[in-house]
Amino acid sequence: MTALDDTPAGPAEAGQVAAPDEAVGARGLLRALLRNRLAAAALVVLAIFVVVAVLGERLAPYGRNEVSSADKLRAPSLEHPFGTDQLGRDVLSRVLIGAEPSLRVGLVAVGIALVAGVVLGLVAGYYRGLVDDVVMRCMDVLFAFPAILLAIAVMAIRGRGATNAMIAIGVVYTPIFARVTRASVLTVREQVFVRAARSIGAGDLRIMTRHVLPNVAAPIIVQTSISLAFAILAEAALSFIGLGTQPPEPSWGRMLADGRGFIQDAWWMAVFPGLAIFAVVLSFNVTGDALRDALDPRQRSAIESAAGRG
Amino acid sequence: MIRTPRASALAATVALLAAAACSDGGDDVPVGGEEAGSGGTFVAAISAQPDQLDPHQTTAYASFQVLENVYDTLVVPNPDDLTFEPSLATDWETSEDGLTWTFTLRDDVTFHDGSELDSADVVYTFRRIIDEELQNAYRFATVEDVRAPDPTTVEFVLSEPTPNLLDHVGSYKGVAILPEGAAEDLDLATEANGTGPFRLEDVGADGITLTAFEDYWGEGPGVDEVEFRFISEPTTALTALQTGEVHWTDNVPAQRVEELQGSGDVTVETVPSVDYWYMAVNFARPPFDRAEVREAIALALDREAIADAAQFGLARVNQTAIPEESFWYHDYAPYERDVDAARDLLAEAGVEDLTMGLMVTDEYPETVEVAQVIAANLEEVGITVDIQTEQFSTWLDRQGAGDFDAFLLGWLGNLDPYGYYHSQHVCEGENNYQGYCDPETDELLERAATEADEDARKELYDEAAERIVDANSYIYLYNPSVVQAWTDEVSGYELRPDRAINLETVTLS
Predict the structure, then answer these.
(1) Structure ipTM
(2) Considering just the CA atoms, what is the radius of gyration of chain A in Å?
(3) Which of B259, B387, B390, B397 should be substituted to probe chain A, the one whose Cβ sees the most A Cβ atoms within 10 Å?
């Protein structure tokens, strides 16, 4: 995966540097995204997702754990558009309320990975040498584990629950951010404007934050969008095996797990939370792809090779 | 079959419905093929792999599913009313003072290695359990001596009358009779030398194979071979049964029972079990030390909904432990759901914004289901329930350390009221994790333990049960059913309330 690791500024990276004043404005970026119809649809889905996650309980016709044994396993109807589960709870309400933990875990986990990964990648790429070796070899070790396995291992140490799921997923995705950041930093640090800043006496910290970071932002933004998709999927997977969000809190992964035993009698229990996961994860992926195209078509290969883990 | 709480714990681990996510469908070897002139191979799908096969050490239900067919005990519970009938002992009598029990053994019993059973084997067995303080040693606390006056007679000398001694020496294969020296000669965790209808042939990672023992003293066996396969996922086990890959399973998803009984392609039978499931709160943690708070919780519960969540209409609400079918059943149900009364009680106790941690384990998925119903019920009276799903080992550690507000679990396989009530509710009981202590209950339970007259004994237990229920030492919830299914090829199998899987008389067509 890493032709980039030790080659300072090979041809692959040469093209990916945007001069400081060329950065795409947020408005321009949005316009570019909306021109892509698929991306526009994905953004709509994500907007709905965020609104549902924020409003959650207020949109839901029933409570999060409103059990009613008389109404269990009801098929979809006007009263319960997505049917009811084995405890008589309204599946629609739980899918709506379940958006919030998905988004929260996804955002916080990616936030952890983003901050930790970018700092590590920046330091490693900027200073090179021993720091680079130590940091990136540690990242390689983390990278060597299959993602979900590593997350389960972290959960085994820290215990169950949504908070630990965030930490686990954050740890798992840190190396990707470190690599993407470092790969870009390696080329930016050789640029004229960086040398110029140094020549007028700017300190390392200032150069890193004011000159290098803004110029490596594009691939990091793309990676963030893609990682959100993975993080939400990982949260669902952890909840599916009972480690993530704990009952009675609704979570899509957990609902899927509960629905599995009833798939022959009550397909709606698994299908609707499954569709929710599908829609959100796909939308983040599509958005990530579109962002990448919009930000710089030439850097596709760099990101793919750095993020190329299963 | 699993007696001690801890046993219930561990044991259970493996037990019943359960087991977590991953499983596999077992291999695809077709069964019943060996026509060769006789009974064929009976294939049973059980939900878990036995942890080990030493009957005196294991507490896992899966182990006893196998051991039931390999070993015998002095007496056995009759499948219908669970009273004790002869097995290796043909006869027993009690001295007038109740301090000596004399068992007469059958003289035609051989072990699987060909040696003959005599009283020395029985003495060896009980000495091993008692002296090595194995799993069931606590049952023999009143036994001062086990001796063998002649080859077919065994005497138990007791320090106090023990009216339920038969239960102790025969309620399940955890007190199976081993040949003298078995623990030294064999690795009992993986080898066996019993007197049962089948001998242990092969222990593997996918399954365990038993072969018919031709010199078995009783009837049968009716098949040449029994193969136990481990299939943890209920839907997978059911599919294996429906496709004829296995002949029998006890791993049937409760929600499918009704439909399966209607469809007629397999036989599904249910019988009320002797198990009970309950919630206990920690008397050492305020405000659960207050009777009003416990009563408020008991009044807030929708027990029908709880039983329904646990086993889809197959579990029966019971506010005491012992099921209706038992001689020891006591009809006492003081709690009827009353949200307002529960709120009033909490207000009276001055309790506001109470959050109760409720410890459950996905080793027993029904506890997670039930906990969600309890959370919804208690929310209505203003108690927030924090459901804490733990791995069973962690769960047990926390239970042992008293590190809980409340927990949900069940007791399996009890027959005698001593097993239902004693160690769970006497002040110093080894299973009294909730910390209930009431001198009067203690006295009733102690007297009942040594009362020889059955009716007088029942009265004592009834009185104790009422005190226990009134104080909510345990908040009893329901008795589940035993659910098992088999194919049309199987005949002669009988479902038992104590979940023993006895294949002695089973035949295949």
Answers:
(1) 0.81
(2) 22
(3) B387
